[in-house]
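In the design runs reported in the main text, the only information available to the sequence generator was the tokenized backbone. The following block is the verbatim input for one such run; it is reproduced so that readers can re-run the procedure and compare outputs position by position.
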């Protein structure tokens, strides 16, 4: 793996001692490269980052799943981002399509999480209006930490009760049947989860973008073309004015680009 941006003298000397083709970065190096911002004087504020993959022609999936356009290095970064997070926020449709399982504790990150005051693994938070979930899945029956279900105040009471009976912690984050993206961030922060990671899907990411609450996008650009009508990484209604993000870093391996963008904030240095 090579660091393409930012480029410094130190980067040139240390990032790729094996030569121009680079080397496989350790998990510790990846964790340092993707560290969440340090807390400010007022304490740690919630920070929502997204991790997505896209082909060269903009497809976020192939045959309904992201795995066919991914690679081993992408999965290492995927695991690292999970290991840094307090909670992984995901839409119910993505849970169904991707066969989501509970996050697992990883010995490689145990000391890092303990030093950060985190538990052994992040919680999974499923965003759903209908609560149409298979509660017999390991995500609900055997998570290391209880799975969260984020829904609206108007959700069907019988399904809320069933989710709670299955062991999930149901969190209200909206007045209607669905959630308010800004309330999702606040509700998770109220539970002590400030290092937030969303893995989509496109509809959920589009809601976060439209609400202006996405702080960071970690986007893997896959050197593949799929054509077809696959979804982009974010869907739903367009925003009135495009949201501007700033490139913070770019890594490369085997033609895959691993980029990290942060939202521009007026009057603040990112």
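Verbatim output:
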């Amino acid at each position: 793996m090579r660091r393409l941006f930012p480029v410094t003298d130190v980067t040139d000397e240390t990032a790729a001692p094996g030569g121009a083709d680079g080397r496989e970065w350790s998990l510790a190096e990846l964790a340092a490269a993707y560290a969440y911002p340090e807390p400010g004087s007022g304490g740690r504020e919630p920070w929502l980052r997204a991790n997505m993959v896209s082909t060269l022609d903009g497809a976020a999936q192939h045959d309904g799943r992201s795995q066919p356009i991914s690679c081993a290095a992408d999965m290492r970064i995927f695991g690292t981002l999970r290991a840094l997070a307090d909670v992984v926020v995901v839409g119910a449709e993505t849970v169904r399509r991707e066969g989501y399982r509970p996050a697992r504790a990883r010995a490689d990150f145990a000391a890092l999480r303990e030093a950060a005051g985190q538990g052994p693994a992040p919680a999974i938070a499923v965003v759903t209006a209908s609560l149409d979930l298979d509660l017999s899945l390991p995500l609900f029956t055997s998570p290391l930490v209880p799975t969260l279900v984020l829904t609206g105040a108007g959700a069907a009471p019988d399904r809320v009760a069933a989710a709670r009976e299955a062991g999930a912690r149901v969190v209200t984050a909206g007045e209607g049947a669905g959630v308010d993206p800004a309330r999702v961030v606040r509700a998770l922060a109220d539970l002590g989860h400030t290092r937030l990671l969303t893995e989509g899907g496109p509809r959920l990411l589009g809601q976060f973008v439209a609400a202006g609450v996405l702080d960071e996008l970690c986007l893997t650009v896959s050197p593949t073309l799929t054509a077809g009508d696959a979804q982009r990484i974010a869907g739903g209604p367009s925003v009135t004015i495009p949201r501007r993000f700033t490139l913070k870093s770019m890594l490369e391996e085997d033609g895959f680009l691993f980029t990290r963008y942060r939202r521009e904030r007026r009057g603040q240095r990112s």
